[in-house]
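Repro:
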Amino acid sequence: MTLNTGTTIDRSNPNLKNATQSGENSRLKWVLIGFVVFYMSLIIFIPALNVFYQAFQGGIAGFLHTLTEREFLNAVRLTIVIAAIVVPVNTIFGLCAAWVIARNQFPGRALLLSIIDLPFSISPVVAGLMIVLLYGRQGWFGPLLQSLDMKIIFALPGMVLATAFVSLPFVAREVIPVLEEVGPEQEEAAKTLGAKDWQVFWRVTLPNVRWGLVYGIILTNARAMGEFGAVAVVSGNIVGKTQTLPLFVEEAYKQYQTQAAYTAATLLACLAIVTLIVKEVVERRSGLKRGTH
């Protein structure tokens, strides 16, 4: 190529070729960053900011009034109760399942992993319908439950079952890779030194998987508090009785109580922000921990 100055550029020069390629990569990088920021703004940032804007649009008095409404407080209480039941149960299940899968080879291991992942792939609404078909008045266990005077559907037990189903895989899925990465050597060494099984678990296994476990618990709690579809199917959305916080948001919006709906949504958004902060802290500490090994 000849410039007007008469200077000739040698394209066969390796340094010039690398500089040109570096410039093209830099432009591509900024184009991709711009696309990601634009897409995330459209899908996440702008809608999230709009929730906070709408919550305070009617004034701080309306926002505070919603926080003291009996229906809102009942929804918050029920959401916390369900999470308080589901998170420990799924944590224990996840730990047991992770240890069995990571430390043993047996027929059906891949199938068991796929079953644990089932809540990731199945619609929450379908999950709710599955529970209704089992425990509803006309379900498989309906006559037995009626004879025992037990109510599952449109009551707390059904909501707990639905929430437990959709949040089932998180702990197991976070702990399994950690256990596989650590390997069984430390546990076997502890046993050869005379440690009992529970001592091996408390002093070797649990410390090794603690950050993965905490991460799984955080995700389980976030999903439990934010679940809508499955809980909506099994709860009946009865105001003051079977209405969780996400159901309160939907009902308030349908009743044109816009500020109340956005106020409750703000609370859920704050929960999500806290979850992200804790998740980031756990990831950093987990990374630091791995870096020390």
